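Q: I have three molecules that I believe assemble together. Could you output structure tokens for the complex as a whole instead of separate predictions?
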Amino acid sequence: MNENENIVSTPKRFALTEVTNSANNVSPNANLKLLTSVALQENDLVNHNTNQYPTPPPSTVHRKEKSLQILCDRFLDLYPLHGNGTIEIQLDCTAARLGVEKRRMYDIINILEAMQCAVHKRKNTYLWYGGSRLNPFLKMLKKEGENLKLSDALRGKAPKPPAPKHKTLGVMAQRFLMLFLVEPQNTLINLEMAVRVLIDTSNNNRTALSPDQQDRQHKSKVRRLYDIANVFISVGLIEKVSGNSILKKPVFKYAGPFKVKKSNEVILYTPPITPLSVLDQQSPCHVFAGKSKRKLEFTTPNSYKETKLCVNAPMEAMSHKWNDILLVADMELTKMNCGKLL
DNA sequence: TTTTCCCGCCATGCC
DNA sequence: GGCATGGCGGGAAAA
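A: Yes, here they are, computed for all three components at once.
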């Protein structure tokens, strides 16, 4: 289609539907997996229900019932935020218990890890802290958001923080939450506004993205924000507010202080005075992914200094399309926010 | 038609 | 080389 796309875009990917009739385009590994899965399916037909990690048949499960929010609710039923002490979580077992793929567990645990509810201990194993470290962490996030001048960035008065190279879901989750924390109480934020701050369009040392590529990048980030928002709603950090008459898109509001859902009711949660919080002093604001070099990057004092130095990109012109949309979004949200604050 | 977001391919990096 | 992790976008359900 567009032959000029290959300059900075990610390598061409092939949807399964695209490749199943053309084995030439499939990597050997993918091909092997495909064949394996077919073989396993046939095997399942013979030995049905011997599957170690059963997934519900697609036809019987409603899309809504499989949402990340509900999945996270169920995850939090297993591992409550208000539990005592720490628990070791085996990701594959948890996935099996919830009847989902392990991949979905990563979506949830990465976001929860970014909130310091869990720490990657070793392969397949996370240490679950629940909400015991959440409130101090939120305070820190707020401070970090102020340092990054996110409030100004939201209004186009300050440069955006640079995009992370790794753990982008976790960092996006943190920055998304920062937006709520740096704004006055009850500020309504929609995903368009958030993405505007969260996408780094500076493209250091690279050619500028075409409007088409910007659109795709934007859509991709919005997808991720939906995922993040759903987990945050489940945790009780934000809530969806209906009624954006112009954009017909949801807006979100911070629901803090951190709440815990407990059997259909929402209760305020005061973190227990527990020795666990002492752990924060050992490695404040720094979440490592086990031994991996990949880590959530924003919080060390050093990285912050580096971050500050890197924040030099001006607010580049976006595609007119998004500017128009964002202008309307701003007007609408300002109106709503003013109404809320009165 | 547009929005929402599940699903799973496959790149990356560690062991 | 195999495996765990996680980025990313296709595409289908829901609105």
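A: One point stands out. The first strand of chain A starts at residue 87 and ends at 90.
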